[in-house]
Specification:
Order of helices and strands: HHHHHHHHHHHHHHHHHH
Largest sheet: none
Distance between the termini: 30 Å
C-alpha cells in the first residue's frame, strides 16, 4: 500500500475514533472518551496491517486485548462509590476496533458510514428512549407483525411463476405486500406522533399514507355524528379527505418509481399533471378557510397479517385478471380490470401494471392510462362513500372537489398526446438513467 494511502487510512481511523470519543466524553462516559476511542480505532487499523504479514492471529489478539481493557475498566468502576457500569460504551469500543481493522480490509465508505452511525446512535440515546417509552403494546405488536411479513415470510417464498399465464410469483406478490404495508406503517407511526396535533394538511397527508379510503370513511361517518354541531367546518373536513386522496395519487407515483423506475420519466407527467391540479385546489381551499379540521380519527394498524393476506390475495387476483383480460380482450380489457380494481384497492392495479410496463408486456402509453383510470375509479368510489356515510353538506363540498378532479383526469386520458407523454420529462429521466 502506498505511503499516502497508509496515512489516509490512519487519518480516517483517527477521525472516526475522535468523533465517537467526542460524543462519549460529552456524556461523561467513565470507561472511554476523547482519547481512548481514537487509540482503540487506530489499534484496529494497525493490527489489520500486521495481520497481512504475520497472520490473522494478531487481529484476534488485538480484539481480545481490547475486550480485556473493557473488563478491567469495569472492574475498576465497581470499586467506586457510585459505579457507572453499562454496556453501550464497551460495545462501542469493540465495534470501533473492528471499524479500524475494516478500514484496511474492506470498503472505506462502509467503515466511515458505520463509524458515523455509531456516533449518531450514541448521541440519540435520550431521543430513542423517549420514543420507545411512548410505544404501547399495540405499536410494538405492529412492528413485530411487519417483521413477520418482511423478514420471516418473504425470504422463504419461492421466486418462481405458477398458474395460468405464469404470472403468479409468490415472492414478487409478497414483495408488493411488504412495500404497501411498509408505506402504511410509516404513516401509522407518523400518526402516533402527530395524530392528536395534526391539522388539516398533516391529517390529510397521514390519512393518505395509511389509507385514503379509511380516512374518507372515518371523516364521513364523523360528519353524520356531528350533523347538528355548529362548530363543524365541513369545508376543511372535505379538504382533509381531498388531501388524503391527492396523497394517494402521489403514493401511486412512488410505487411506480419503486417497481418500474425506468418507465417513470414517461409515465409520470400525466399523473403529475392531475396531482398539480389537485394541489392547486388544496391551496385554494386553504386560502378560503384556515381553521383546524379537528383531531384525526383513530387509525388502524396497517401491518396486521390479515390485512397483508387480503392485499396479497387482491394483488394476485388483479395480476391474473389483467393477464386474462389482455389475452382475451386486448388493451381494452385492461381498462375494465382497472375500473373494478380501483373500487377496492388502487395499489394492486398500480403495482401489477407497473410490472407489465417494466417487462414491456404493455406499452407505456396504455400503462399510465390504465393506472389513471383506476385512480379515477377510486376517487369516484370514495365520493360514493361520502354520499352514503356522510351528510349532505359534506358531500356537496367533496363532490365539487372530486368532480373537478374526475373531469380533469378524464380529459387527460382522452386528450394527452402520446408523443408528449413519451418526450416531456422522459428525456431528463433517460439522460439520468444513461449516466448511471
Amino acid at each position: 500500500m502506498p505511503h499516502l494511502e497508509l496515512f489516509q487510512t490512519l487519518a480516517i481511523a483517527l477521525a472516526l475514533g475522535l468523533l465517537v470519543g467526542l460524543q462519549r466524553q460529552h456524556q461523561n462516559a467513565r470507561i472511554a472518551g476523547i482519547r481512548t476511542f481514537p487509540i482503540i480505532t487506530v489499534l484496529g487499523t494497525v493490527c489489520a496491517w500486521l495481520a497481512q504479514d504475520f497472520g490473522g492471529w494478531i487481529l484476534g489478539a488485538g480484539a481480545l486485548g481490547t475486550a480485556a481493557i473493557v473488563v478491567v475498566a469495569n472492574l475498576m468502576q465497581r470499586e467506586k462509590e457510585n459505579p457507572d457500569i453499562g454496556q453501550t460504551t464497551e460495545a462501542a469500543l469493540l465495534l470501533m476496533f473492528a471499524v479500524g481493522a475494516y478500514l484496511v480490509t474492506g470498503k472505506t465508505a462502509v467503515a466511515v458510514a458505520i463509524g458515523g452511525s455509531v456516533a449518531v446512535l450514541l448521541h440519540l440515546k435520550a431521543t430513542l428512549h423517549e420514543a420507545i417509552s411512548k410505544l404501547g403494546e399495540k405499536d410494538l405488536h405492529a412492528i413485530m407483525q411487519f417483521v413477520v411479513i418482511s423478514l420471516v415470510i418473504l425470504p422463504v417464498l419461492p421466486d418462481k411463476a405458477y398458474g395460468p399465464y405464469q404470472v403468479l410469483n409468490p415472492y414478487n406478490i409478497w414483495l408488493m405486500v411488504v412495500l404497501i404495508v411498509g408505506i402504511g406503517l410509516a404513516g401509522y407511526f407518523a400518526y402516533k406522533v402527530f395524530g392528536s396535533k395534526a391539522g388539516t394538511l398533516l391529517g390529510g397527508v397521514l390519512g393518505g399514507l395509511i389509507s385514503s379510503t379509511a380516512t374518507t370513511v372515518s371523516y364521513a361517518k364523523r360528519s353524520k355524528t356531528d350533523n347538528h354541531s355548529q362548530n363543524t367546518n365541513y369545508n376543511l373536513v372535505a379538504l382533509v379527505i381531498f388531501i388524503a386522496t391527492a396523497v394517494s395519487l402521489l403514493r401511486i407515483i412512488v410505487e411506480i418509481s419503486v417497481v418500474a423506475p425506468a418507465t417513470l420519466g414517461k409515465v409520470a407527467p400525466p399523473l403529475v399533471s392531475l396531482l398539480v391540479l389537485m394541489a392547486i385546489l388544496i391551496g385554494f381551499g386553504f386560502f378560503i378557510k384556515k381553521e383546524n379540521a379537528g383531531q384525526m380519527p383513530e387509525q388502524e394498524n396497517p401491518a396486521q397479517l390479515k390485512t397483508a393476506l387480503v392485499f396479497g390475495a387482491i394483488y394476485a387476483i388483479v395480476i391474473l385478471a389483467t393477464a386474462a383480460a389482455k389475452d382475451h380482450f386486448g388493451n381494452s380489457g385492461l381498462y375494465i380490470v382497472a375500473i373494478i380494481s380501483g373500487l377496492t384497492d388502487v395499489d394492486a392495479i398500480t403495482l401489477s401494471t407497473s410490472r407489465l410496463m417494466n417487462n414491456k408486456t404493455i406499452d407505456l402509453n396504455t400503462g399510465w392510462k390504465v393506472i389513471m383510470v383506476a385512480a379515477l375509479s377510486n376517487i369516484a368510489f370514495k365520493g360514493a362513500l361520502v354520499a352514503i356515510l356522510g351528510n349532505r353538506t359534506l358531500f356537496g363540498r367533496v363532490a365539487l372537489l372530486f368532480g373537478i378532479s374526475l373531469v380533469a383526469g378524464a380529459l387527460i386520458v382522452w386528450l394527452w398526446p402520446e408523443s408528449f407523454a413519451l418526450d416531456w420529462f422522459g428525456k431528463v429521466a433517460g439522460n439520468t438513467l444513461t449516466s448511471q
